[in-house]
Write a structure and sequence with these properties.
Length: 233
């Protein structure tokens, strides 16, 4: 009888755990397929970027009612008029800053926290700013659970995070009508900034800004559609 009870408990635990295991395995397969088909096959080649995107569970960074589409090739709403970016764009923006292990990166627009998580898999420290308090606190909670090298600040990203400047790279995940001067000032000599620039009601241009001494250069990389940059002013 004792053996029967132990066997019954083991079987019951197995049956209870199976759905969760199956769901987790399903997300894992979808994530690997996402990286292969949407990112690597579309030209992203940086090994660190690909490795990071294979590791970060995108579905955990979006509302539960959106998780079935977590690994689709599209942005998704995360509340407050904001979105989590299309996976390919996250991969592209990560690769383009040429991230290295020793980098300190500033992100403007924490949103869901997904881009910060991808960067945190690669670089020494990520400093990320979100102006929408509820989004910032939600992202901070999940980022704190998974990374010790991410700092989240609820503030106006226009002014950057001067306390920890200069930064090796800056990633801006909202469209600004022009490049905020404080961000240029906080970019390290030799650093790169990726930022969508243009009207929030039209197609914008994803711009790469590079700083070399007193010389600031910029070039357009591709047309994009991002939510507008929000400033407290």
């Amino acid at each position: 009888m004792k053996y029967f009870r132990q066997s019954f408990v083991l079987i019951l635990l197995f049956l209870i755990s199976c759905p969760f295991t199956s769901i987790a395995q399903g997300y894992e397969r979808q994530r690997q397929e996402m990286v292969e088909t949407q990112i690597r096959n579309r030209g992203i080649r940086d090994a660190a970027t690909l490795r990071a995107m294979r590791r970060v569970p995108r579905h955990l960074y979006i509302p539960e009612n959106q998780q079935r589409w977590a690994y689709d090739d599209r942005p998704l709403p995360i509340g407050y008029g904001q979105t989590i970016s299309q996976p390919y764009i996250v991969g592209y923006m990560t690769e383009i800053i040429k991230p290295k292990k020793e980098f300190r990166v500033l992100e403007i627009g924490t949103g869901s926290g997904y881009q910060a998580a991808v960067l945190a898999e690669i670089v020494e420290h990520v400093f990320t700013i979100e102006i929408v308090e509820s989004l910032g606190l939600r992202a901070k909670e999940i980022l704190d659970q998974n990374y010790s090298n991410v700092s989240v600040k609820i503030a106006d990203g226009y002014y950057g995070w001067e306390e920890y400047a200069p930064f090796d790279a800056i990633v801006v995940t909202a469209a600004a009508e022009y490049i905020p001067p404080p961000l240029i000032e906080q970019l390290k000599d030799g650093g790169r900034m990726i930022i969508p620039v243009g009207s929030p009601f039209r197609v914008q241009q994803l711009m790469l800004v590079e700083k070399k001494g007193d010389r600031i250069s910029s070039r357009s990389l591709m047309p994009v559609r991002f939510v507008p940059f929000t400033s407290g002013d």
